[in-house]
Input
Amino acid sequence: MKRLLIVAHAPSPNTQRLRDAAERGAKHEDIDTVEVIVKAPLEAGPDDVLGCDAILLGTTENLGYMSGALKDFFDRSYYTLLEEKHGLPCALYVRAGHDGTGTRRAVEGIVTGLRWRWAQEPLVLRGEWQEGFIEQVEVMGLYLAAGLEAGVL
Output
């Protein structure tokens, strides 16, 4: 069994819907050999990452940066993981009220330092809320889990 860890900050009903969509996609009925673990950033830690085969990160854009909760997760985990999970497949979605550039850049910098590997291009959901965001995040979760199951990640 492979394990996909979803660490996503969901402070609002819409961001909760995004986290639920990521989980729903990853738990698609056609995927049988991937266990999906979903945690809020303040509940997740380095042991969760050490036990996973891929990670999906979700964050809001807060003042042009990632959420404080996701930053806290990285602060508590970074040095423990620095030499342990090189090449970990990862993906990111950002719920950005503005352009999401600073948020994406900040997470990319940390991912680069950890030497994780992007399994998918980061997804930045910009501007006013759109119902289509849900499907985009669900597909991201599905593709990440399917890639794990197929052994291509």
Summary: The chain is about 45% helix and 20% strand. The chain has a mean pLDDT of 97.
